[in-house]
Amino acid sequence: DFGDMTNNDRDNTVNEMITFVYDIVVDSAVTANVRGTQLTERNAWRWTAAPLSISSTTLTFTIQEPTLNIDISLKNGGTVDASDTITYVIEVTHLAASNSDAFDLVITDVLNPVIDLVVGSVTIVTNAATTPAVIVQGNTSGDTTIRLTIAQLKIAETFKFEVQYAVQPTLRFGYDIDKRVDLAYDSFPLASTYQRSYTDNDIETTPYIPPSITIDIIDTNVATTISSQFVAANDDITIGEYVSYKVEANFP
């Protein structure tokens, strides 16, 4: 309520004005506030003399949101063995649906008891152009996990880095190595109770090279046997015959 307004000069070439500024916020707590939703804003002025009101035009806003993906892969693919040093490639990208910059990115990993971080091995391959990443953990003596932060990742920007881990020599047969990385980010560059927070993660499962065992007939004391002449699918031996086998166990 602005009270009474008196137009004293009656000069229609000079407008008398009431101006006020107000803020609105797109609240993440409103579940309907998602990508593609349209919000409108319109003002109406009312007074006691006729005509009793006028309305402004309607402004329309379309909500945009970032959607990021984090991916981890083994650089050279394949399998691993005890005492190997393995290199992972971690990449953060905007998905096709993403239509807003992402802010306050934090990339971390989850400890795996059979591999150890190679301190100093965190190497940035493709950095964010707008606000380059900061390696918080991973390259300092005593670090056991990685932590990287990026203030802003613009639409179509990507971020990629590599990191190495040493496989413990006591790795057991049959133990595949799972390595997980986590990503957290939000929709607004400043601290706000109204912003939306997002997460993503990925796991790379690397198989351990298993041992193998083979067995072969290498000799018999009857020259005409082991020729497969009677049963094509098998070696032939006769009753009373001695057979020599060779067994090999291969441990990568």
Strand fraction: 35-45%
Order of helices and strands: EEEEEEEEEEEEEEEE
Query: Could you tell me the number of beta strands?
Result: 16
User: Biggest sheet: strands, sense, closure?
Assistant: 5 strands, antiparallel
Low-confidence blocks of residues? none
- Mean pLDDT across all residues, rounded? 86
Oligomerization state of this entry? single chain
**Helix share, percent:** under 10%
Which structural class do you get from the secondary structure elements? Answer: mainly beta
Radius of gyration: 35 Å
Please give the alpha-carbon distance between the first and last residues: 83 Å
User: Can you tell me the overall shape?
Assistant: elongated
Count of DSSP H/I helices: 0
Task: Describe the protein.
The structure is a single chain. This protein has 252 residues and is mainly beta. The chain has no helices and 16 strands. Strands 5, 6, 8, 9 and 12 form a 5-stranded antiparallel beta sheet that branches. Strands 10-11-7-13-14 form a 5-stranded antiparallel beta sheet, with no helix packed on it. The chain is 0% helix and 41% strand. The protein has strands spanning 38-41, 44-46, 53-55, 59-62, 68-74, 85-94, 102-109, 115-117, 123-126, 134-137, 147-153, 159-167, 177-186, 197-206, 212-220, 243-250. The model has no long low-confidence stretch (mean pLDDT 86).
